[in-house]
Design brief:
By secondary structure, this protein is of the alpha/beta class. 34% of the residues lie in helices and 27% in strands. It contains 13 helices and 18 strands. The strands form four sheets. The chain has a seven-stranded mixed beta sheet. It has a six-stranded mixed beta sheet with strand order 7-2-1-11-18-17. The protein is globular.
């Protein structure tokens, strides 16, 4: 089946869905409320599942250009003591490209494939018949509407599909820092390392030979949670990481994490993807990954069925239960911050040392072949 589709939102999920549909012969128009694509300065985890989607869509090389593949992840305790070393390559490839590279590559590919992207067009809502309503009073009709308009999705809410938005009580501050010439002499500074002390977590993740992605997470009630960045407090928590913390600028982006659950991913000729239905804490690095795999699977289902509603039903049956499991695992991983330190150490050592447990929890999404991938 081929037809015409309207996509609400030009984020990762919306652009990936638009491009996947274009590759299947659909006509695609994407509408974004901002004046340009929503580029954030930090890097993004893309595991094997997401990388296979990028290969299928033909943008893999552009996205990872200049990036380095991450091979090893360490978990460390309050004083820097090693709790375990994990070979991340056992779960496939892992890169941390810049969000700018990912979004720009998807946007350029959509336009090259004949798709349209319209900016400055806020969405009001959608109707099950395949109509997208805009705040300026205009309406667009299509065979398919894809709601990829984020955690505050107007498409989702206008259809009454939201079941819950649950804050998880944790805040994340993310930023890129420069790598210094002396870092290359330290093997540990070329690995992902996750450091825990009390309820605080510092993630150090090399992205390229020049830059590192850093994420600081803290729980509600912690004086350091929220803005502005409290350098002195983080230095007190992780004095052995002063070489990281001193490089952190104060213009990073911070978010309070939440989990979104819905009654359904579909309603009539409308499908929802990305944070509109699968918002989750970032502890597995799979927010973008499951958005892209859902987008590719959506296009694949539409190509295999004779009508939109049958395709959407098959797509939801294939994807939704798994994605909700990934959301659950991500939330549980973050709750390690709430455990007593001794129990958390035991849990982290167990995760690091037990391949079966990793494959069925924190690496389950990375190991699942995307439906429709080449």
């Amino acid at each position: 089946m081929k037809g015409n589709a309207i996509v609400a939102g030009a984020g990762i999920g919306g652009l990936a869905a638009g491009l996947a549909l274009l590759r299947k012969g659909w006509q695609v128009r994407i509408y974004e409320q901002s004046d340009d694509i929503r580029i954030l300065g930090a890097a993004i985890y893309i595991w094997e599942n997401g990388l296979r989607v990028l290969e299928t869509l033909g943008v893999y090389e552009q996205v990872i250009a200049g990036m380095q593949q991450v091979q090893v992840r360490e978990r460390r305790g309050a004083k820097g003591e090693l709790l375990g070393v994990e070979n991340t390559a056992a779960s496939g490839r892992l890169f941390l490209p810049m969000r700018r590279a990912l979004l720009t590559s998807l946007k350029d590919a959509v336009l090259s494939a004949g798709g349209e992207i319209h900016f400055g067009k806020p969405i009001q809502g959608a109707d099950p018949c395949g109509a997208l309503r805009f705040r300026d009073g205009t309406v667009e009709q299509a065979d398919l509407v894809v709601g990829a308009d984020g955690v505050n999705s107007r498409v989702r809410d206008s259809l009454g599909l939201l079941r819950s938005r649950k804050p998880v009580g944790q805040y994340g501050y993310r930023i890129m820092i420069d790598r210094q010439p002396g870092d290359a002499a330290h093997e540990s500074r070329s690995r992902i390392s996750e450091h825990w002390n009390g309820s605080r977590r510092l993630l150090y993740a090399p992205s390229s030979p020049q830059q590192v992605y850093v994420q600081l997470t803290s729980v509600r009630g912690d004086p350091a949670a929220g803005a502005p960045f409290d350098r002195a407090s983080w230095l007190e928590t992780f004095p052995h990481l002063d070489w990281v913390i001193e490089r952190i600028p104060e213009d990073g982006k911070g978010d309070w994490f939440e989990v979104v659950r819905v009654h359904s991913w579909v309603r009539g000729h409308v499908a929802l993807i990305g944070d509109a239905v699968s918002a989750q804490p970032p502890f597995l690095g799979q927010g973008g990954g499951v958005a892209m795999t859902s987008a590719l699977s959506l296009a694949d289902a539409l190509a295999k069925h004779a009508d939109v509603e049958s395709a959407l039903a098959a797509w939801q049956a294939n994807e939704r239960r798994f994605v909700e499991w990934v959301q659950t695992v991500s939330r549980f991983y973050g709750e390690l911050a709430l455990m007593p330190q001794a129990l958390r150490k035991m849990m982290l050592k167990l995760l690091t040392g037990n391949a079966w447990l990793r494959e069925h929890t924190i690496r389950c999404a990375a190991l699942r072949p995307p439906t429709g991938a080449v």
